[in-house]
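For the sake of transparency, this paper describes our internal protein records without simplification. Because each token names a local backbone shape, the row as a whole describes the fold. One such record is reproduced below, unchanged from the form in which we store it:
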Amino acid sequence: MTELPKPEIIITHESDLDGLLSGVLLQRLAQKLFGEKIPIATYHYNFWKQRELKERSGWVADFTFEPRMDKPDWLIIDHHVTDVAPKNAQLIHDINKSAALLCYGLCRENGIQSPALDRLVQLNNIADLFLEEDPDFALANDCANLVKTYQFWNLHALIGGQIEKLIDHPLLEVMAVKRRVENPLGFEWSKSNIAEISPSVGLVDTVVGNNNMVVHQLLEKQATKYSVLVTLFRRGNMVFASFRSRNHGDALKAAEKFQGGGHANAAGAILPKSVRNIPDAVDYLRQILNPKRDAPLNSLENIFAGIEAEQNNRASR
């Protein structure tokens, strides 16, 4: 049985089902092992990279292992590719399993298991690893789309932290109808509304449907000449960019230019605070992905965005 350090905090990824399941499973595990309800903190990639690890100990799930996380009494459970080998932290890592499946393995070692959890973790694994050939792929993506649609903490509050309720939640009916009706309409519309950001990156305009599935179909059916497709959306005062590709890890390479991260072919980033609307975001993407392009910025926000990006790039070197 794996011996685990007692965490002061549990940190997980905010934007997907894998992060939600990982966080709740680890919280239950900590409750079982240490008799305390450890708080969960959630982050998107950009904010996570800026967060200082001030706690003496912690558990981190669904974030790429990096040198700053290599601290005594820290446990990292992840499946993203990393070149860093742990010297102080405890790393549980397998690129062929979702983070939640790895967390569930620890739970099972300690007697936390049920048929409902078995099923939910299985569906999440299918969706997060994008196992297209699995017969439950459609249902798995409906489950994953719950977090994309209703957001982490809203969904967590709705189910009272009881993640098993997602298995047959009424909102899955909404996701299924949206998939059957909206996705085909969205695919046909978006196929004719792709704008060039760079020679290899195209911006997909979306009006309806599951953005991830629409973009996946565009790539799968080779309905575009671009190797990477990006979608943009606003949430609160922030603009988010979602990158997808079919192979070679091109999506992750693009996201990393904006201090983002994720999977090799499905990654994301939050654009600088100075980028406040979609038109400015388009200009900003073009500026960063075409560094030699001599095109003037058309707004004060973009000027500040460029300065901020350069500062971030220097700091990461």
Remarks:
- The two ends are 40 Å apart (CA to CA).
- Confidence is low (pLDDT under 50) at residues 294-304, 309-317.
- The CA atoms of residues 243 and 267 lie 5 Å apart.
- The longest strand covers residues 228-235.
